[in-house]
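Lecture notes, unit on protein representations.

Consider one protein chain, 141 amino acids long.
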Amino acid sequence: MKRRDGQRGFTTVEFALTIPLFFALMLGAIDGGRLVISRYMVSSAAVAAARVASVRSTVTLGPITTAANNAAPILTLAGVDVTFNASTTPVANDATFAASKPTGAGNTVTVTVRYSYAPLTGSFVGIGAKTLTGVSRVSIE
């Protein structure tokens, strides 16, 4: 095929116009995957922490926080809150945890895990950090 003189460099111009779109789509796909994995890990951390909190032998917040962090090893969790029987005030420290943990049938513990997700493409498209929250409610054993 014969090339016309008026079309020299057209491929380079097409490449220069399409490569930013290609990279934006790739980074968006990577961000979407990171978001899905982060949401799953936050939910899994809440379930693991609630299971530990529901055991009668747990009398401090340490094992609950450790269980949440172990369930989400690649995330730096923003917080782990523990409440009992539909209370809205989270337990503040180990002393209040031991004092407020109810015993007996019908009592529940709720664990809320928070993580601050920052997308890679946020600076390009103006999307800021989002807080992901996982909540799990379990009956106390």
